[in-house]
Amino acid sequence: MGPAVNSHGPGIGVSASLELLPIEILTRILSLIRTHDLTRAAQACKALSDACDRVIGTLTHLDLKNVGANLDDFTFSKLSKKLGPNLKSLDVDCWHLSEDSLKNLPKGLEELALCGCDLHTSRIISNVIDSTRGSLRRFAWSGFGCTPSAGAFERLLFNSPNLTSFRIDSLIQNIDVNVVVRAMADLCPFVNDLSAFDLTMETFSYIKQRGTQLKKLRHKRTLGSSMGITDASLVTITLMCPSLEELNLVDECFLPTGVENFLTDTGLLVLAERAATLRKLKLKLARPEVAELCSEVAVMELASLCGKLTHVELINFKRLSDPPAYELIQRCPRLVEVDFSYSSITDATLELLSEHCKGIRTVRVKGCRLLTSRGLRALELCGSLEVLNAGSASGFSDSVISTICSGNPNLKILVLSFAPLTDNALKHISMCHHMQGLAIHECNRITNVGLNVIAKGCPQLRFVSFSYCERITDAGVIALAEGCSQLMKVQLDGCKLLSNPCVRALCQKAPRLRYLSMNQCPKLSDDVFQHLLDGASLRFIVLGSPKLSTENTMAFHLKRQLVELLIDGKRFVASTVISGKK
């Protein structure tokens, strides 16, 4: 039989054929594709449009975090009208949405996560209150530079008495997050999941007094006045949370004076004795010096008493060596994730991990200098590894990469640096077709040949970094842009041969690109700003070149004031430049 001939003109025959199919069949087919691809399918013909509407109307969860500039007020309003009463959970990137966009939220939402609220005010929260009318059980807010008032969050909490999860992961201007969290303790008695920045010890004491018992706690310190990871903080948390299941503490502020600012065996032993229910534990210290008074014995006791752990991250624990790592691995056979970054573990730990923890999915050993190729090769036996971060770890070579990738074909994230890798290593990595994040730093033997292979083999890449791989040129990056259209974050710092054409390709071929870093790229010229205007989803740009003029930088900034722009490591602010000229 010869090829079918469409006598009705382009597209009409296809549309007519689809319209002959029962709507139930089209709906079933479309329900299998990714939600954010439904919009494209709906534009093909009326039959697909109707089927897409039916699919959207049945959704219970919708994730719109990675849509980029395609999610504007008009699109969101049109989509909201099609969402049915079944929708209970919604994640939205608000960066391209106005304050009033959330007036169109579907009724009855129980879970709402708003990210990209970089320049939003209290008005958007008021619209959330009006739309949800007390139905929220989980609420999350993230954004930097946003200016909502503490009162707006308090009104949200007052109108959401059944809230069980509250996450306010933002550095919000002009308000003290401690005030908001204390209001949460007063108004929402059922909250058991809290995530926040820079809370004080006094706030945690207040939460305890109000009777709030958390099962999940995530806290990050960036200010010296807030609560760090110390003996006192662990004692307070364990008293406040007798049934703690998840503890995630990140400390980015190092205060060198006073024993009270350090973590010792006392704190770890208290945690071990009082938190036997823990399943996820992350302690990221500001520097290894903070844990100088923590011995191997305390970590071993933690492993011995917390046998339900599935996720363990002990970062910057300089005395974490093989014996306590052995104890964790043997006492916690259901481990899914481990992070021993900047520790003193050796090959023996990775060999034991690969042998005993067959469910392991994530391994991070960043900065572990005692590792060799023997231990890294053992990771082949994991079989189901999805994330491997071994930046600055020693022992890597092309053959080691080949071994790891062949044994773990579902690898999704790989981070390496300072390794003598060649394009052959990238050929092995390209066999992991589910790869979403790839960072190969300071590997000077990597060339365009390797980038072309990655572009063909890893089309799902969202994050890529080839910083300080000085032999790659525009042609290699252009191949990446053309082969990996889902790219959202690209880092190419110190790639001295790159120039404007690769920026043009990234902005035109990767419509979801949010973050572009090309510091110390001397061949970039002022024309780069014209290409950057094509990047509708760009949110953060880092550039560095002697050829970039203040005038053209300012002209771009005035056109794209919402974009965070760093030039030579300094945040570009037009008002500062203008005042400087005066």
From TrEMBL:
Domain F-box: 15-59
Record-level GO cellular component terms: cytoplasm
SMART domains: LRR_CC
InterPro entries hit by this protein: F-box-like_dom_sf, F-box_dom, FBXL15_LRR, Leu-rich_rpt_Cys-con_subtyp, LRR_dom_sf
Coiled coil: none
Stated name of the protein: F-box domain-containing protein
Organism: Marchantia polymorpha (Common liverwort)
